[in-house]
Give the backbone structure.
Amino acid sequence: MAGRRAWPAVAYEVGREKLREYTAVTGETSSLCLDRRVAHAAGYRDLVAPPMFTVVYSAPAIGPAVVDPEVGIDLARMVHGSQRFEWGEPVCAGDEITTSATLDEVRERSLLSFYVFSTVSVNQHGTEVCRGVWTNIVRGS
Amino acid sequence: MTDDPRNEAAMGDEPRNPTASFDPRAPTAGATLPTLRVTPDRYLPHRYAGASGDFNPIHLDREFALSVGLPSTILHGLYSMALVARAHTEATGDPTRLRSLSVQFRGMGVPEQEIEVTGSISAVEDDVAVTAAEARQGETRIIRNAEGRLGRRVQ
């Protein structure tokens, strides 16, 4: 069974077209996220990322952690159980976000195993933009 | 904060006492968030996979989904969570006001069926409005026990 474990931090450069791809698929309506002129007029440096864009910049950090063979999750039996995000400084296009992931806890209850990962993401100034707690549930054999 | 005309329109459209609708300028416990309704089309999971980087075949490949015991392909949970987040940020007109959101994933979301996100303010603590929300497809709750925190506008 895996104990506490940490992985190296991974950087992600936030781009306008990727933001547009994400806002289009989620149906985002906020003009701060869709129109650079509105974002600038509101005092932001560029297009504002919707809060759930965190799944995009966190992916390079959390992905390898979840599939790490030393953690040993059977992906075919894994489902996403619950999720929590806390947001700090807004993220804008042009930011570089660095995320580090840790495995905090593995607990078992009857035939289920709960894997709890957390991530911390900071921007290019070292300011925290997001913390995540990712709980995956693996059905036992 | 900037008054978002959509907030006025949403409150005007509700056939009930307007003070029961969430007022982002002065949130009160019991106020409801405008209901968000979205029907993901057949290929939304493919576009969401591209946008998010999550190509888990349980969302994309029916044969694979069946082979691991699912009744069909299922929606990405984080896509449904993005809709819950949207219901919150559209209620305030400002995506930077969502300070936190936690959800439980239950049931299995599917494409081509309407998702309905509903929520209300459960408490107001200092300047933070705490919400309770959920996402349903028909009788199935695909996100339950969602709790959000809406704060003042950042910067």
